[in-house]
Design goal:
This protein has one domain. Helix content is 83%, strand content 0%. The chain is mostly helical and 75 residues long. This is DUF3185 family protein. Keywords: Membrane, Transmembrane, Transmembrane helix.
């Protein structure tokens, strides 16, 4: 893989991570509503939102670091 391809891949993953992070509430609500869980709804909803936030944060941080490292590395 070339350096340009790696930077493109990391940039795309970074954007996907940000989208997941920004939509974590909607994704969590959708996941819980389609699961049919009525008991402890609030707890399950909060945990689902937290999981999506964590996933988006990890993707964004790791791919952002990958972009920075690849851009600053010598060819």
């Amino acid at each position: 893989m070339t350096k340009k391809n790696l930077i493109k891949i990391f940039a795309i993953v970074f954007i996907i991570g940000l989208i997941i992070l920004m939509n974590s509430i909607n994704l969590g609500t959708y996941a819980v509503d389609n699961n049919g869980v009525l008991s402890n709804y609030q707890i399950v909803l909060e945990q689902s939102i937290m999981n999506y936030r964590l996933l988006g944060g990890i993707l964004s941080i790791l791919s952002g670091i990958g972009v920075i490292i690849n851009m600053s590395a010598k060819s």
